Amino acid sequence: MPVTPLTNSSSISSNTNDTNRGIAYGVGAYVLWGVVPAYWPLLAAAGAVELLAHRIVWSLLFMALVTAALGRWGALRGLPPRSWLLVTAASALIAVNWGVYIYAVNSGRVVEAALGYFINPLFSVLLAVLVLRERLRPAQYAAIGVAGAAVVVLAVDYGTLPWISLALACSFAFYGLIKKTVPLDSTASLTAESAVMTPVALGYLLWLGSAGTFTGHGAAHTALMVSTGLVTAVPLMLFGAGARRIPMITLGMLQYLAPVLQFAWGVFVMREPMPASRWFGFAMVWVALLLFTGDALVRARKQRRVVAVAPPV
Predict the structure, then answer these.
(1) How many C-beta atoms lie closer than 10 Å to residue 216's C-beta?
(2) What is the value of pTM for the model shown?
């Protein structure tokens, strides 16, 4: 008669603690991304491109220190040329994403930016179909269809395509697709991307010279400029730490924290206009996300049942 092994309570406790830490890291990352609209207006004296350049340069400085402390420089030195090309493409996409977002926040279009991050998961799924030839399930088809109709409704409401939303969603979806093929963890990857972008960013800042705002608006403004590196790197590091500890389905549920907080900031703090037609368009987006998330939860539950009844090897 086989003997059932006793469960190691310390192992269960350790796994539970690790999962709780992972959730805390994930929540921390998305909350920081959600409240960042309160940060960029503090630097509104600088233009979006100047802020983007500072964000890149100071991110590299901060990430270089972190990479050195973790002993991760070897991963970058051994990166093949093809991977550096992918890093360059990823850095261009994330630079577009950062620049558009800074412009959106500082021009009073936080709600439109939040829409971009609401629809980003659906764009990622669509890319998986078009590029990776993955097959969609019926609920995913329905979610993408409803989201597409929502974009049409919002385009009619705005009087033009919501280009900020589409630019943010597309750039981040393509960025995520490329990141899947780069053999680097989140810390080394962000360091490499910042290193690729920094020569251009630093050249732009040097060209600005006295026309820039780095030291022209007092010590507080200068300190905030330097802190753009922290604002960029800290949430990404928390995200990376969370992703290693919790299932992707959990991380996927947490990702909606950021656009919810951004949307709330735009509507209730910035008092951006929200006519009935715009509420209707956003409601359609949220229905699409409910379909998408519900399908993911059902699929994850089925997979857990399959694993639970599978015979031991």
Answers:
(1) 12
(2) 0.88
The pair of three-digit structure tokens given for residue 103, joined into one six-digit string: 């412009």
The SS3 call for residue 310 is coil
pLDDT the model gives residue 4: 44
Mention every residue, 6+ apart, whose C-beta is less than 8 A from residue 157. 275, 277, 278, 281
Q: How far apart are CA 59 and CA 232, in angstroms?
A: 7
pLDDT at 250: 80
Angstrom distance (rounded) from CA 235 to CA 238:
5
How far from 64 is each of 60, 124, 199, 240, CA to CA, in Å? Answer: 6, 30, 15, 17
pLDDT, block means (10 residues), the chain with 313 residues: 48 71 92 95 92 95 92 88 94 95 96 94 85 84 92 93 94 88 85 94 89 82 93 88 79 88 96 95 95 87 70 55
Dump the DSSP string for 60-122: HHHHHHHHHHHT-HHHHHT--HHHHHHHHHHHHHHHHHHHHHHHHHHTT-HHHHHHHHHHHHH
- Per the listing, tokens 């990702």 go with 255
